[in-house]
Write a structure and sequence with these properties.
Length: about 250
Amino acid sequence: MKYTVESDVGRKRTVNEDRVAFFEHPDRFKLALLADGMGGHNAGDVASEMTIEETKNFFLNIDAAQLDSIEAKKQWMLKTIQSVNGKIYEHSLSHESCKGMGTTLILVLIDGDECLIGHIGDSRVYHFTHDNVGLITRDHSYVNFLVEYGEISEEEAANHPQKNYIVKSLGTESSIEPDFYELQLEPTSYVLICSDGLSNKLSTDEMSEILHQPLSLNEKGKKLIQLANDSGGEDNISVILLSNNEEV
């Protein structure tokens, strides 16, 4: 498994409230993590930083022998997410400057070619193969719910005034239920994990065009960030790019 991790403050912001990380367990497991923080007085970076550090501790201390099935992995991930959610929520209640803070969350637990994804908010996971692209996650946003219920079209959603309004985030309520997805990596496929600073600026065609250029994985990650900045860069931009293609 090859990976690259990139994050940029963008062209308009002064603080980067995104946090991205990739951890490798002494056993076979790996964990990709993206958190896009939100909250007044830059408290979003507190929420996303807490998410990284707390999740890292849970991950590096897992008993790999206990994660012997997909259900066991889901239970570990659920327990981890709920614990981190509780700590962020309690911190927001006890620190006035952090009141109401929260973060999106993407967790990808990697076991060989098998990926288990935990998701909260509007950060995304895409799966790119040689001839196809799939959006794996489903945004927890007001506008996405309107699309799913047939109230507005995809085209209307792209320019909706409330397109960035998230209806579920980590740390803003005392309890949380993430969505889970399973993904099997193919020999030449890519998994792209990103904050909305990227997905709001680049089409899947633009992403795919970069991923299929004869560049290193690191260069592809940097080029995705560059294109989002060239397209406005109004938000923080973060990317984790995974591949099991030995040629990149």
